[in-house]
């Protein structure tokens, strides 16, 4: 089993550039199925979800190869509409293949997508939008099966809530449909504008992406071209490095606009960190001897609100802060499964449904805890930066973390943390050999 181990006490110093955003790269790789020419995505991190996407592309008849840190996709002549169960179940991002497979193969068969267990994650909005475009839903229980008869057609569709995934699905479906699609109540996350920028560079005609009303003029069945695209930086990884301010010191995040995580930086500032914002970089400074301010009521919401993915990171910052805080997640019902790990480290932390309660002023100590999901796992690693000098936190099941960070332990180590990644199986194996 993979783990990450952190020994507390080291202040962090240095600068770091986030890799390309996972939540852009995943839909972009699916979108390349709509392209008749090769596409290059720049500086893509080797995340577990990226590897799953590459396996999935290969399974449906397409493919991509690494060229250094770039990924170059090869257009496919023939595409199968079937996503293998293991790949669908390995990540939520498998849902992005519904629309491209339906467009290319005329049918799509997607066993229910996996991903972090953050509560119910239905895909009814994806399906309602695709149905409005003329797709037929043949099955939707354990495995979603869609068919189309003729080219999908443009439509005027209002999303019942601003789902990021559904906005992306419908944008992808509309690119090669006949006529104009208007999406109302669309999600506004930066990854949606980034996906639209990629599609437009490939010849799509999308306006308004990043606002609640997105218009897409379809090609009427023609495929798109290819392009070279520099993916948006990962704002959640950037927030993770910023939250490392728990340890004290000064961290500069480069090549990343502070606007993309403004709500998180406002939170850090409100907690007593010094935040210096430039045009395309920002620095967080925290004096180790000054207590952070708790007493906060945070609400995670859709962009530009405090991102749900940063809510557990904010919690890690608040564990030792002075005063009780509460964080409410408006998007997911079970965002705070990491509360158990926080409590094992000595924090007064408990989650009740969407609400996380933090007593504050915790004197954290070392312990072995388990990553419940991707961001919860990263939050437990961050909490480890705040334990007393010499105490050690071991986060088990760190495979969750590698779904979204190529090397979180390495990133923190380069900033000065005493942090390393390992595998329990390997160590046990080595000991047996010695004996
Ligand atoms: N929802 C529905 N019906 C739908 C779609 C969504 O009820 O058809 C509900 C969900 O159940 C949830 C809420 O709407 O309660 C928000 O879901 P959304 O569709 O916006 O999220 P997602 O597309 O499933 C993406 C990211 C998440 C990120 C959220 C919110 C990917 C692969 N995942 O998920 O990222 O938290 O948007 O910003 O893009 C992560 O990176 O760790 C992660 C979980």
Helix/sheet category: alpha+beta
Describe the sheet with the most strands.
4 strands, mixed
> What best-fitting shape do the alpha-carbon axes yield?
elongated
| Strand residues, percent | 15-25%
Helix content: 25-40%
Q: How many beta-strand elements?
A: 23
Explain this structure.
The strands form 6 sheets. The chain has a 4-stranded mixed sheet. Strands 2-14-16-15 form a 4-stranded mixed sheet. With 435 residues, it is α+β, with helices and mostly antiparallel strands. It has helices at residues 22-31, 48-60, 85-90, 98-105, 124-132, 164-175, 190-201, 235-243, 262-270, 311-318, 339-344, 374-385, 399-402, 408-414, 424-434; strands at 2-7, 12-16, 39-42, 63-67, 70-74, 107-111, 136-139, 143-147, 156-158, 180-184, 205-207, 213-217, 228-230, 249-253, 274-277, 282-286, 297-300, 325-329, 349-352, 355-358, 367-370, 392-396, 418-423. A hairpin with a 3-residue loop joins strand 7 (136-139) and strand 8. The protein contains 15 helices and 23 strands. Mean pLDDT is 94; it is low at 428-435. Helices cover 31% and strands 24% of the residues. The chain is elongated, with a radius of gyration of 22 Å.
């Amino acid at each position: 089993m993979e783990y990450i181990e952190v020994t507390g006490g080291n202040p962090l110093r240095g600068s770091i550039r986030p890799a390309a955003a996972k939540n852009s790269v995943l839909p972009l790789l699916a979108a390349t199925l709509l392209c008749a020419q090769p596409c290059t995505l720049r500086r893509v991190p080797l995340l577990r979800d990226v590897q799953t996407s590459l396996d999935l592309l290969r399974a449906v008849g397409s493919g991509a190869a690494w060229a250094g840190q770039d990924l170059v996709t090869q257009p496919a002549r023939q595409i199968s509409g079937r996503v293998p169960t293991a790949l669908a179940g390995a990540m939520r991002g498998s849902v992005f293949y519904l629309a491209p497979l339906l467009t290319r193969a005329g049918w799509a068969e997607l066993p229910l997508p996996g991903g972090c267990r953050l509560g119910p994650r239905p895909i009814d909005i994806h399906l309602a939008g695709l149905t409005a475009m003329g797709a037929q839903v043949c099955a939707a229980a354990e495995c979603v099966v869609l068919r189309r008869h003729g080219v999908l057609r443009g439509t005027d569709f209002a999303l019942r809530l601003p789902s990021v995934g559904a906005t992306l699905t419908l944008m992808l479906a509309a690119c090669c449909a006949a006529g104009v699609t208007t999406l109302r109540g669309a999600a506004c996350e930066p990854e949606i504008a980034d996906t639209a920028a990629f599609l437009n560079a490939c010849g799509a005609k999308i306006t308004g992406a990043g606002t609640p009303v997105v218009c897409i003029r379809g090609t009427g069945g023609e495929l798109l071209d290819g392009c070279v695209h520099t993916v948006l930086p990962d704002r959640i990884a950037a927030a993770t490095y910023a939250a490392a301010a728990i340890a004290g010191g000064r961290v500069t995040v480069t090549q990343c606009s502070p606007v993309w995580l403004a709500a998180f930086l406002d939170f850090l500032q409100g907690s007593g960190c010094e935040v210096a914002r430039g045009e395309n970089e920002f620095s967080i400074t925290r004096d180790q001897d000054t207590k952070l301010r708790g007493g906060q009521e945070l609400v995670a919401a859709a962009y530009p609100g405090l991102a749900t993915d940063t809510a557990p990171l904010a919690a890690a910052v608040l564990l030792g802060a002075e005063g009780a805080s509460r964080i409410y997640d408006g998007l997911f019902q079970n965002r705070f499964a990491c509360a158990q790990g926080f409590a094992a480290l000595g924090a007064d932390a408990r989650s009740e449904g969407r609400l996380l309660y933090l007593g504050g002023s915790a004197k954290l100590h070392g312990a072995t805890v388990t990553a419940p999901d991707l961001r919860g796992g990263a939050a437990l690693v961050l909490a480890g930066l705040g334990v007393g000098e010499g105490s050690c936190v071991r986060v088990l099941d760190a495979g969750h973390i590698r779904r979204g960070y190529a090397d979180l332990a390495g990133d923190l180590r380069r900033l000065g943390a005493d942090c390393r990644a390992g595998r329990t199986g390997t160590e046990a194996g080595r000991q047996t050999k010695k004996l």
